[in-house]
Specification:
The protein has four helices and seven strands. It has a four-stranded antiparallel beta sheet with strand order 4-5-6-7, covered by helices on one side. Strands 1-3-2 form a three-stranded antiparallel beta sheet, covered by helices on one side.
Length: about 150
């Protein structure tokens, strides 16, 4: 069995492109065009071939394009069911994988419990909820992620 998916932070306390890109890249296909472009940006930053201050249109455009690249990478990051990737609620500098509590609540309010009465059946798994702890499992009850 693979290691359970890990919820939580992957980058804390920064919105700097040169710090976010290395944190995000391991979570997308390394052969994608965006991954290759991000590697090129990081190399330019490492070689001091990147604008330090935005003083002209070209530097502004480079930073703007990099922000678009960062968003494109964020959009490619895949998450298990009931999880989203992004900034933690209440802290825009804490990026990671977080439980989508609205989706969990929606399932709990609309779904029927399974025959054992301890988990909610989803399209491809089970969501168990015990107080504040939530666990998502595949149909064989292998843990995908857990807040425990």
């Amino acid at each position: 069995m693979d290691k359970p998916f890990q919820l939580g932070s992957i980058s804390i306390g920064t919105l700097k492109t040169h710090e976010l890109l290395p944190a995000f890249l391991p979570h997308i296909n390394p052969e994608s065009d965006d991954a290759k472009e991000a590697q090129a940006v990081l190399e330019r930053i490492a070689n001091n071939d990147w604008p330090q201050n935005i003083n002209n249109w070209e530097e502004y455009q480079a930073e703007f394009d990099t922000a678009d690249l960062l968003q494109s990478i964020i959009d490619q990051i895949e998450c298990p069911p009931f999880v989203y990737f992004g900034a933690q609620e209440g802290d825009i500098t804490d990026f990671g994988f977080w439980v989508d509590h609205a989706d969990v609540l929606e399932l709990m309010l609309s779904a029927t419990e399974n025959e054992e009465g301890d988990a909610f059946i989803t399209d491809d798994g089970l969501l168990a909820h015990d107080g504040h702890d939530i666990t998502y499992m595949d149909m064989e009850r292998n843990v995908i992620w857990s807040t425990v």
